[in-house]
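Weekly puzzle thread! Below is a chain. First person to post its structure in token form gets bragging rights.
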Amino acid sequence: MPVHNREKYVGAALRSLLRQRDRADLDIIVIDDGSIDGSVEVVRSMMSEASCIRLFQQPNMCVTKARNAGLRR
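Winning reply:
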């Protein structure tokens, strides 16, 4: 899941994915694309609650490159 300055929404998006864990074995890969708001802190907080969330950070390179980075992980 690419993220760039979406502090307001990333927690809700991750909670939605986590609710689906019962139906699927999930690895949630979050690629932070150079956020300067609190997006990374929200993701890290969620990581302490769910070990299936993994965070990778990169400088801002655009959503397409962030998605591709996630696919390579």
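Puzzle host: Confirmed. Bonus trivia for everyone else. Residues 7-19 form the longest helix (13 residues).
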